[in-house]
Amino acid sequence: MSTAPATLNDAQMRAVNHLHGPCLVLAGAGSGKTRVITHKIARLLQTGLAPRQIAAITFTNKAAQEMRERARTLVGAKAANELVVSTFHALGVRMLREDGERIGLKPRFSILDSDDVLGIVREVGATTDAAQARRWQWAISLWKNQGLAAADVAQQDNALTRQAAQVMARYEQKLAAYQAVDFDDLIGLPLKLLRDDADARLKWQQRFAHLLVDEYQDTNAVQYELLKALASHPDAERRGRFTAVGDDDQSIYGWRGATIDNLKRLGQDWPALTVIALEQNYRSTGHILRAANAVIGGNPKLYDKKLWSDFGDGEQVRRVECDSDSHEAERALAFIQATRAAQPATGWRDFAVLYRANHQARAFEEKLRTAQVPYRVSGGQSWFDRAEIKDLCAWLRLLVNPDDDPAFLRAVRTPKRGIGDTTLDKLGRFAGQWKCSLFEALFAPALATQLGAKAVAGLHEYGRYVNGLEERARQARGADAARALLLAWLTELDYEKHLHDGDDSPKLAAARWTNVLDFVDWIARRCGGAAARDGSAEAAPEQSVLEVAQTIAVIISLAERDADSDVVTLSTLHAAKGLEWPHVWLAGVNEGLLPFKSDAEEMTDERLHEERRLMYVGITRAQRTLVVSTLRRRKRGRDTVPGVPSRFIAEMKLDDGTAKENPRERLKRLRAELAAKAAA
DNA sequence: CATACATGAATTTTT
DNA sequence: TTCATGTATG
After folding, report:
1. Which nucleotides of C are covered by protein (CB under 7 A)?
2. What is the 3-state secondary structure (H, E, C) of A406-462?
3. Neighbours of A206 (CB within 10 A)
4. Which of A56, A119, A250, A298 has the fewest CB atoms lying closer than 10 Å?
5. Per-residue pLDDT tens for A286-302?
6. SS3 label, residue A393
7. What pTM was estimated for this model as a whole?
8. d(CA A257, CA A276)
9. Is the CB of A130 within 7 Å of strand C?
10. Annotated catalytic, A182?
11. Is residue A624 annotated as part of the catalytic site, yes or no?
């Protein structure tokens, strides 16, 4: 990025200036796709479109935030704030909050996270087998991503599939009863809305005059249909105004429903489609790009594309053989230290160690920790996954939607308030009988026939408290009021004491309490309206706690990772997509690991191709130095097995006589290794 | 009811 | 090897 030139290159320019028809931009790794998107937004504004008519769709909140930030420097703060820059899911939420009622969803529906979903699946599937429940959850999500309903799957002759379909049917009933939606519904239901309701369809088609989609190769079938519906304006003049930006070579999410078919279908559904390939790379040096091109050349391709750069050959790609994973970690550490010794300006942040599977991080963490090298592990437990944060989120969700039974169950038990499993069990059965939510059941007069007077009184007290809290949350508007309310609430719950009463050590309990206070702060900031510093919040009026709570499930993964701290990155290849570092160590490039081989599923061509794209993504993360390491012995489960170098190593075609480490580098490395040993 | 031990399973991840 | 879940025991 730092190296991007001031002007757009020819291909980028063509993409930016193609304003009125469907456009597919095949953006190779490091070819400046975000630049194209932001410049195109600026160009569209120039032609007279209002910012709110332009929608840029991303997959992650982080990407959305970045996009708005980049647009800001180009079009100014005011216009940037008015642009619709959002994830698919956030756009879905918006559509459903506005128009969900047209398809039978009340405006204050709740959004379930995957733990809630798992709980419901376990319940309707009547199983205690967590692995089974997870398989069902997985299958249901995949089907929903393909646009399939339970009824569509139910006719298959596979008994297991039919069983899963039945679980899915009951699951969907439950969601409807809770007035809750899962993440997949945030795409599927807006699509249903556009299909079933002509008024809503026209309204949304008219709202956006141009759609830009980032990481288009990651779209699934339902997302494709949603985009198609949004872009299908009845007026031929305004139809098909979209820009899809993606790279088929970086499609690595097939296993969760993304399909490259969406690239082919685009040409079929929009015959006027203009395809533009961005091939000039502004990230890496020649040796790295050549290796990348050589590897990806092994895959079949839809459109031809070959990366090149102006940066010269640069350093050779290095290949390193290691005895074991701990040896590999030692060598990586030595590499980092040697590079820093040779180039004093190099920071820790300039290094990344990339690997296929999370467990590979362990060896590296160990070595880096003992060497006192600061590091961060990608995909580590998010702040929002922590139990204490989820407790509080459950409360907030309950305030938004009292019929959200999973939230009710979690909130009513934290902290314990003398309402035990027996009482809740009976309440649940009562609610099931009367087909109402737990919260509704709680106030039903007939409940007294099922439960003792004491239990009923306890439930009533709880219900009244929740109602009162909802009213207070509605009125607490702005950062200060929000903070005051949330702190008062925590005091009423005696939540800090609850944390210390748990079986955590006092130290851990204190850490949890700190998290809680951070969370309060986080919500309060979001209530604060325009004053928000981080630039992510739009210049909006102050919000009430209740309003912020409504959007919480979607914002939640926006866990701000302090990207600017000077640390070495340890990351999976998946989590590394879209990022870049001057020096990259690609670890464990062995058969079985990359390409990954599972005992459960056989290796199909399509699987192998996706693994190859993963390797390609890994290689193209590197700007200047790339080291690829293999293991001679590799752990598999309990025992150690001989390691075979990945076929992808050979495919990089490094052996043009230059792949060997040069002697000076070798000496440097050995010295650093010694130093590292001495330090440990 | 809570704690301790045993047993089994273990890609990739966002919303 | 580690983590999580289930069972058995006090």
Report:
1. 1, 4-6
2. HHHHHHHHCCCCCCCHHHHHHHHHHHHHHCCCHHHHHCCHHHHHCCCHHHHHHHHHH
3. 13
4. A298
5. 999 999 999 999 999 88
6. helix
7. 0.79
8. 25
9. yes
10. no
11. no
CA nearest to A307, candidates A334, A284, A331: A284
- The string of pLDDT tens digits covering residues A417-457 is 878 778 888 888 888 888 888 898 988 888 888 888 888 88
> Residue A638: CB partners within 8 Å, gap ≥ 6?
none
End-to-end alpha-carbon separation of chain A, Å?
37
Structure tokens at A238: 């305004």
Closest nucleotide to A637 by C1' from CA: B10
Cα–Cα distance, A226 to A257 (Å, whole number)? 15
Q: Strand pairing partners for A111?
A: A181
| Overall average pLDDT of the A592-602 stretch | 84
Which residue in A122, A241, A621, A668 is the catalytic one? Answer: A621
Tokens 């190099």 map to which residue?
A346
Residue A114 CB lies within 7 Å of the nucleic strand B: yes
Residue type, A176: A
Q: Is A184 among the catalytic positions?
A: no
Which helix (DSSP H) or strand (DSSP E) does residue A141 occupy? Answer: helix A130-145
A129 CB below 7 A from strand C atoms: yes
Compute the C-alpha angle A268/A26/A245, nearest 5°.
85
Q: Greatest CA span in chain A, whole angstroms?
A: 86
Helix/strand/coil for A182: coil
Name the percent of chain A lying above pLDDT 70.
Answer: 90
Distance CA A145, CA A473 (A): 35
* R_g over Cα of chain A: 27
Q: SS3 string of A225-246? A: HHHHHHHCCCCHHHCCCEEEEE
- The spacing between the Cα labelled CA in A130 and the C1' in C8, in angstroms, equals 21
Mean pLDDT of chain A: 86
Is position A621 annotated as part of the catalytic site? yes
Whether A33 is catalytic: yes
Query: In this structure, is the CB of residue A488 within 7 Å of any atom belonging to strand B?
Result: no
The answer to whether residue A215 is catalytic is yes
- A557 CB closer than 7 A to any strand B atom: yes
Tokens describing residue A413: 């038990």
DSSP β-ladder status, A639-642 and A633-636? antiparallel
Q: How many CB atoms lie within 10 A of CB A323?
A: 13
Q: Catalytic residue among A214, A225, A391, A580, which?
A: A214
